[in-house]
Write a structure and sequence with these properties.
The chain is mostly helical. The protein has a single domain, classed as Orthogonal Bundle (Arp2/3 complex 21 kDa subunit ARPC3), CATH 1.10.1760.20. 75% of the residues lie in helices and 3% in strands. It has twelve helices and two strands; from the N terminus they run ααααββαααααααα. It has a two-stranded antiparallel sheet. A hairpin with a 2-residue loop joins strand 1 and strand 2. Helix 2 packs parallel to helix 8 and helix 5 packs across helix 9. The longest helix has 31 residues. It is globular, with a radius of gyration of 18 Å. The N and C termini lie far apart (60 Å). Its main location: membrane. This is Membrane protein, putative. Pfam families: CbiM (PF01891). It is a multi-pass membrane protein. It is found in: Cell membrane.
Length: 229
């Protein structure tokens, strides 16, 4: 056990970069802009909600740590961000997802100081895009249970993976020696292979929650999506 811990510590790099510092500043500014004061106060006051956050965080963290490494800095794993968003709202979900990012940066990337960079491309960008898509779906599409699950969870799950991979690939192309052809052949090609299972994972999870734990969902209401009266 001690030998494993020593090897783990030795493999972790603490080299910082200007990009990492800029990303940290941007991340702090972003969270200052979106900080959900009311929701956070409710979370602190509610033990039931704290339990749900713990369960969700544990599940997402386990999901992220089950990953496959294609090459240095190119790792593939499921996200589960849409479930977080539909359970807690996109602002609080953005905060909850920071713990999986931290574990991923330490134990997978082995570059803790790249935490902010990965948080931007693996959490902030996908979650914000999913929130925009979800809100526009609610605005323009009929309020039906099928619409909520299919557009809010299935399609959004695919979009979360799509924007994560594309944004991270763009960053790798700008900041490393990986050219666009290599990224397209070895990373972007995985979008369908990961996107559809991600959509299925989020869609099934939300379907189960709608049936058995609708009160766990952030803004789901039977009167809106089912009974209409």
């Amino acid at each position: 056990m001690m030998q494993f811990l020593e090897q783990l510590v030795d493999s972790i790099s603490l080299n910082s970069s200007l990009a990492g510092l800029i990303a940290t500043v941007l991340l702090v500014f972003w969270y200052w802009l979106i900080w959900p004061q009311t929701q956070f106060s409710e979370l602190v006051a509610s033990r039931k909600k704290q339990s749900r956050v713990f369960i969700a965080t544990f599940a997402i963290n386990a999901l992220w740590l089950i990953n496959a490494s294609v090459s240095p800095q190119i790792h593939v794993h499921f996200l589960g961000l849409v479930v977080l968003m539909l359970m807690f709202g996109w602002r609080l979900a953005s905060i909850i997802a920071l713990l999986p990012v931290l574990f991923f940066a330490i134990f997978v990337l082995k570059q803790p100081l790249d935490f902010a960079l990965y948080a931007i491309f693996a959490v902030c960008v996908p979650l914000f895009v999913c929130f925009i898509f979800y809100s526009q779906s609610f605005k323009f599409l009929p309020h039906h249970l099928f619409i909520y699950i299919f557009f809010g969870a299935f399609i959004n799950g695919f979009l979360s993976m799509l924007f994560h991979i594309v944004s991270w690939a763009l960053w790798l192309n700008l900041s490393t020696d990986y050219d666009w052809l290599y990224l397209a052949d070895n990373y972007l090609i995985l979008i369908p292979l990961l996107g559809f299972p991600e959509a299925l994972l989020n869609g099934m999870a939300i379907t189960i929650l709608v049936v058995y734990r609708p009160e766990w969902l952030y803004d789901y209401c039977d009167r809106t999506y089912l009974w209409k009266q």
